[in-house]
From TrEMBL:
It is found in: Cytoplasm, Cytoskeleton. Its main location: cytoplasm. Residues 7-17 have a biased composition (Low complexity). Filament-forming cytoskeletal GTPase. It comes from the Eukaryota. One of its GO terms (biological process) is cell division. Residues 1-23, 333-360 are annotated as: Disordered. This is Septin. The lineage of its organism: Eukaryota, Metazoa, Chordata, Craniata, Vertebrata. Belongs to the TRAFAC class TrmE-Era-EngA-EngB-Septin-like GTPase superfamily. Septin GTPase family. GO terms for cellular component: midbody; perinuclear region of cytoplasm; septin complex; sperm annulus; spindle. The keyword Cell cycle applies. The keyword Iron does not apply. Pfam families: Septin.
Length: 360
């Protein structure tokens, strides 16, 4: 970024008009410094990221929340996470601000009580979908205010980690029902829970069967193929799609292995290390959520899922024909609006219009 760096100016080849002085721009203008400006702004603002864990009771959801917070990237224990994990009885969010190299991340993980534990599981997904839509509604109500906050607090769920029981067979009808609904509302990353109960061959066969089930039931989990923006996205995301659902193991206990302190599960025959790729794929999940796809998960949430919700709500309230300045939303409807599935059109339309709205 040397300001003195010279580059040939396209102006120099043009004939100069007699009135204007000949173009003197020969050198480097510094457009790439915009990236630095964005970085400084983003670092000041910090990032908000919200994850939700969903699945039947006993699959290790609450343990995974602890694992995420205690694993190497964060190494912190938010209040309440240090004690033994009780059974989750209601939706509960844990937030912690994590700082690494000056970058602040406000990470919220929402734990849900096991669903499908009853004899009659009719509508057992309502509280989960209700919570997700409630966060969209909150955001919408803030967004439509004439005098609105410069930065709207974002509690929308950016990613839902869905725990599949390690049966080794295939997805259960209940999993399919819920996944179909969830994928229309939120980004979903399925994982094989308690993967230490399966052999490596069983994990692989189970993964393939789940992938087949997802395809035959048209369940589009994250990263959705239709949102790959270029060949690089397609190459990276294809590799991820091939490994999803990740076979994960969770633990909030630390053990000493070869002089290193590791998060793991102690068994009679050894320690299963959570952050060891030879033992399980927790690292793939964490890298997808934080390292490689955090911003994309947020973008798809905003440009596709939230946009679908917003359009449905505005249509319901019959406000669209009155023009973009007129908003008069009815109070929250009792049920979630029936949003269409992910739509590339929506995402692009939103991207064209929201540049000045997004704070980061
Ligand atoms: N074998 C095994 N047990 C696990 C794993 N994760 C959690 N557990 C155990 O499963 C039990 C239920 O875990 P919990 O996190 O409360 O499950 P939740 O009901 O889904 O929140 C606890 O005894 C955990 O120690 C795992 O990956 N493998
Ligand atoms: Mg729990």
């Amino acid at each position: 970024m040397d300001p003195l760096r010279q580059s040939p100016s396209p102006c120099s080849s043009r004939p100069s008009s007699p009135k204007t002085p000949p173009c003197e721009i020969h050198g480097y203008v510094g457009i790439e410094d915009v990236l630095d400006q964005l970085k400084i702004k983003a670092m000041k603002m910090g990032f908000e990221f919200n994850i939700m864990v969903v699945g039947q009771s006993g699959l290790g959801k609450s343990t995974m929340v602890s694992t995420l917070f205690k694993s190497k990237v964060w190494k912190c224990t938010p209040p309440g996470l240090g004690m033994p994990i009780p059974q989750t009885l209601q939706l509960k969010s844990v937030t912690h601000v994590v700082e690494e190299k000056g970058v602040k991340l406000k990470l919220t993980v929402t734990d849900t009580p096991g669903f499908g534990d009853q004899i009659n599981n009719d509508k057992c997904w309502d509280p989960i979908l209700g919570y997700i839509n409630e966060q969209y509604e909150r955001y919408l109500q803030e967004e439509i205010l004439i005098t609105r906050q410069r930065h709207i607090p974002d509690t929308r769920v950016h990613c839902c980690v869905y725990f599949v029981p390690p049966t080794g067979h295939c997805l259960r009808p209940l999993d399919i029902e819920l996944l179909q609904r969830l994928c229309r509302t939120v980004n979903v990353v399925p994982v094989i829970a308690r993967a230490d109960s399966l052999t490596l061959e069983e994990r692989e066969a189970f993964r393939r069967r789940i992938q087949h089930n997802l395809r035959t039931h048209c369940i589009e989990v994250y990263p959705q193929k239709c949102f790959d923006e270029d060949i690089n996205d397609r190459i990276l995301n294809s590799k991820i799609r091939d490994r999803i659902p990740f076979a994960v193991v969770g633990s909030d206990q630390e053990y000493l292995v070869n002089g290193r302190c590791v998060l793991g599960r102690k068994t009679k025959w050894g320690i299963i290390e959570v952050e060891n790729m030879a033992h399980c794929e927790f690292l793939l999940l964490r890298d997808l959520l934080i390292r490689s796809h955090l911003q994309d998960l947020k973008d798809i949430t905003h440009n596709v899922h939230y946009e679908n919700y917003r359009v449905c709500r505005l249509n319901e309230s019959h406000v669209l024909p009155r023009g973009p300045c007129w908003v008069n939303l009815a109070p929250t409807p009792p049920g979630p609006p029936v949003a269409p599935g992910p739509s590339k059109v929506c995402r692009q339309a939103r991207e064209d219009s929201d540049d000045e709205e997004d704070d980061y």
